[in-house]
Amino acid sequence: MSEQGKATIKCWAEDDRPREKLLIKGTSALSDAELVAILIGSGNQNESAVDLSQRILLHAQNNLIELSKLSVTDLQKFRGIGVAKALSIVAALELGKRRRRSDMHDKIRITKSSQAFEIFQEHLAYQNYEQFSAILLNRANRVIRTISISDGGITGTVVDPKKVFKLALEFNATSIILGHNHPSGQIQPSEADIALTRKLKNGGELLEVPVLDHIIVGDERYYSFSDDGRM
Predict the structure, then answer these.
(1) What pLDDT score does 220 carry?
(2) How far, in Å, CA of 95 to CA of 105, rounded?
(3) Positions of E strands within 87-220
(4) Model confidence over 196-220: pLDDT tens digits?
């Protein structure tokens, strides 16, 4: 970088300092707040972009998963965040999710619960309400597709076993893995979860489409009925 370039950077406003740091040291040197600051570009009368970003992250418990759950409306409640800035944050976090999803190869072969969790996490972990999904597998335990079964509220969702197996048969699945999220982050199964798993497991045995596992997703953690010897 030329001396003239260095001099120019030194004159940058406080809100532009994270950009300076990124140019000189690279993205890995920046904190989450500094990366968010680059997205929003500026703060407000009382806070720099970094200060404002730190406050937003603090509201999200300094957790990017919690931050991704905030809507455009939620973000606009922070002074200095308008529609454009809120959209920038939401769009950047969505790109991060899609990048992770695209890293997963098509027709992945499921051999352990952690692989099923990775798939379900992309569909379920960032929701504020309970959702139920299923991974459909072929005879080689390779993923045919992941399907959404039902949406519910904060505390539960209604699952129709007929719909689960109807979709499984439509896509010629020979086995399935069930998955749903707990918005609270708690991963231990409820009595309703246990009863539903037993019901679907019995149904799968009758139709010769075995249920291999049921994964409960809680952000970065999960519970596997199979790993716990309950399948």
Answers:
(1) 82
(2) 17
(3) 131-137, 143-151, 175-181, 211-218
(4) 999 999 999 999 999 999 999 987 8
Domain residue limits, the chain = 3-101, 106-224
- Structurally, at CATH architecture level, domain 106-224 sits in 3-Layer(aba) Sandwich (3.40)
CA distances from 45 to 15, 48, 80, 192 (A): 12, 8, 8, 51
Report long-range pairs for 112-117 (Cβ below 8 Å, ≥24 apart): 113/213, 113/215, 113/222, 113/224, 113/226, 113/227, 114/222, 116/177, 116/179, 116/213, 116/215, 116/224, 117/215, 117/217, 117/222, 117/224
pLDDT at 190: 93
Strongest mean pLDDT among 140-144, 176-180, 183-187: 176-180
Of 135, 127, 150, the closest CA to residue 218 belongs to: 127
